[in-house]
Amino acid sequence: MKKLVKMKDISGEAIHTRAVVEQFRDTLSADNEYLLDMEGVERISRSAADELYNLTHSDIKVDIINLSTFVAKMLDVVTKSRFLPRVRTDSKIKIVFCNDMQTLSKELRAFSNSPANS
Fold first, then answer.
1. Which of 34, 38, 64, 89 lies at a C-alpha separation of 20 to 30 Å from 51?
2. Cα–Cα distance between 54 and 20 in angstroms, integer?
3. Listed residue (51, 39, 53) closest to 8, CA to CA
4. Global pTM?
5. Helix (H) or strand (E) holding 25
6. Confidence of residue 117 (pLDDT cuts 50, 70, 90)
7. What is the pLDDT of residue 88?
8. What angle do CA 78, 62, 79 make, to 5 degrees?
9. 115: alpha, beta or left, given left = phi > 0 and alpha = psi -120 to 50?
10. Which H or E element spans position 5?
């Protein structure tokens, strides 16, 4: 039998940070199954939604019910972004590899003296 957990009792009407979901996850056991009731939770940050996605795809069995429209959309955005390639669009970015502090200091001085940072 699944254990019912009312997320609003844990987070209130909004889940603002990833840490809230991480702390909740740490109270769960892989030996049990959970039904996470999101009734009354109206908002969730993208990072918290990402952590909730991680929870639902972990070794802990969690089903989620009663999502608000906003929370459902945010979870959908996070889920879809997991399967999209991450593409850098600005090819003007210079990547510098520094193997020691001297090289790092030199690059940082050059960066701070560049016209773009004046």
1. 89
2. 13
3. 39
4. 0.69
5. helix 18-25
6. low
7. 67
8. 10
9. alpha
10. strand 3-6
